[in-house]
């Protein structure tokens, strides 16, 4: 079995990579964001366009990051990319933000959502939701502590299963829906919305988030220069088709105003129309499988970044320990413990929203990195490796990706200045941590 220089096993193929992308992106957002996007857009035509534009911006980002990842095929994702591009200090703040805020908050949110749906499906008291969430997280973490082929196989399986209810929604809506998918207008919008197409795109970009976590597994992919771009691009194309297909199917099955009023109940309404009460239950099971796959994908990817930082000597050395299966065992369980704490605390959803804003800040800098890397190669007269992926339509595609990132940042700044301020405070806390470990190393 091939082992990378980082000590982790290169055993994941392109299909596992695609499954990680799909699994970490397609969770609850596609099912529960329909009403919000439609209401914000103001109509079905604009709503569907928002999902398409959001997908294209995300794809531009994926293509751009694929070239960066192809040039820097190492474990650690954008932490390593930012370090190679902008130096150790910026790289550390990137990793710190993900380790301390982004990863634990998002893992906690997915676990909590899973627990809520699980409790509702089995008529369990909501009092047990935190316990269910933590137990689910511990089970997924335990599985990831074994050979990474086991977690990879689970990812492929759950990704396949989660597509079943999605295709059912699409097929029923398209062939049996009676509403007009395009041209409907939402007549009863809240006071905070006014048919703002830009904010509707922003909502879809949050739903598309998570695709870049595959970059954390660069050191465990077979032939990462070739397979990382293939997995990111292939996975994102499938995600875009899924999101647009589900949206079109729902618009065909349920009138626009009813979608807004039903909010989170939209998928169940469509399933009941198609298959009765049994359909609603089957869809709930499909969503539970979807969330389990999403949680597994994040636990598969995020701890690798913690491991990479510890390996660099900028986090406690115990975090770089691996077990017999060559899994980053201490990084895995430390991430799980931080997420478990957030499950118990209130405001985990708010923390995840804050984390998404911060990660897009680093996305923008990473996208710009493709210009830096090409300039470096040009100055050094380095010819592109035959296995090196190069983003198509350069420089247009990276510019679109950077523009999409700036769009997220500016709109979030306008919509929630206090959250942005707190985000930067959390990032700033990493500064003394960085200098502590820098002094310790020297």
UniProtKB/TrEMBL annotation:
It is a multi-pass membrane protein. It is found in: Membrane. The chain crosses the membrane at residues 12-32, 48-68, 89-115, 127-146, 153-177, 197-219, 231-254, 274-295, 329-348, 354-375, 387-410, 416-437. InterPro entries: AA/rel_permease1 (IPR002293), AminoAcid_Transporter (IPR050598). GO terms for cellular component: membrane. The keyword rRNA-binding does not apply. GO terms for molecular function: L-amino acid transmembrane transporter activity. Gene3D superfamilies: Amino acid/polyamine transporter I. The keyword Membrane applies. Keywords: Membrane, Transmembrane, Transmembrane helix. This is Amino acid permease. It comes from Weissella paramesenteroides ATCC 33313.
